[in-house]
Predict the 3D structure of the following.
Amino acid sequence: MSTTVEESRRSGRRVGDSVFSGLALGAALVILVALAGVAIFLVLEGLPGLTAPEENLGGASSFWGFVWPLVFGTLLAALIALVIATPLSVGMALVISHYAPRRVAKPIGYVVDLLAAVPSVVYGVWGIVVLGPQLVPSYGWLAENASFIPFFAGPASTTGRTIFTAGLVLAIMILPIVTAICREIFAQTPTLHQEAALALGATRWEMIRMAVFPYAKSGMVSAVMLGLGRALGETMAVALVLSASGVITFNMISSTNPSTIAANIALQFPEASGLTVNVLIASGLVLFVITFGVNFAARAIAGRSERRLAR
């Protein structure tokens, strides 16, 4: 009797494993089909926009002349966000996982997680009403004292609606994503590795540098790249904060700013018609390719780190 029950239990586990495996495979296939559908739609609808005349390109002589300033603005805003958010996110994750007492770390973790639930339009309104005006004096000081640096050449914006303000808002938006992932990766570091480093006389920071960071390297790269993907595709916050004029400039404190692909699509699409719609979809295809390339590179870097640790 007991043998029959045991065989039934084993058979039940096999059925459960098969069901779970089938569901996981089905979910993966649905994602691939959806991704392929988006790619096919962008290609078919965007191809006519590649050869659109000048009147549909906002004055640009070619599609690439139209889209290049948008690509530049997208990458610049995302880069500003990453430079600001990455060290803050790693530091906050370390505080939560290794430095702060548990009674303090848990509330901090909850607050960071709640930031991810704030709608992007709220960040955009906050950037216009609060952050931008607060940064105006700083922009003026930079224009007067650091104008020899191309980033702060000025003239300073009087509204605070600059590419730097947009990058700062994006940094706050990606902060909870990167922090949450890094926190979980840091917490999964084998306790024996950490205790061995401390037993050999390492300080807490030396233990983190020699035991935690090597173990979490691939996860940190993935977290940063996920944050980059969020920054590249953000629409409403950038559209609300940025005063864009479609130029290419490294000046981050003036009112003359490059726009981003996503923000330009959101602002121009309601009034677009004819080939202009195809031009906007073609620019979306460019953003799709950039995002796909970033995620592919992140997966390659993370996989290489995992293989190195496995040796």
